[in-house]
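Q: Structure tokens for this one, please.
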Amino acid sequence: MKYKVLYTKKAIKQLSKIDVNQRNIILAWIEKNLVGIDNPKIHGKALKGNLRDYWRYRIGDYRIITEINDDKIKIIVVGIGHSKDIYERL
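A: Here is the predicted structure, written as tokens:
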């Protein structure tokens, strides 16, 4: 089963504020590593505590925060940003 990647409005807004070069790197990484794969959990790490429903993917100093819905075969990107403040903005 191939997963689809969807973006929340908040994630799109966060992505638009990132430098163009870094944004292209992030989007290329998502396209290569998340779109159409069978198991999105192999590249990510489950978060803990009050964020335990989310998974994170590391691209340099940036993080992609997602919600993985195995029932509907969807990866929902809920946040994209620098590692120093992305967790506070969720």
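A few notes: The first strand starts at residue 4 and ends at 7. The helical segments are 9-16, 20-33.
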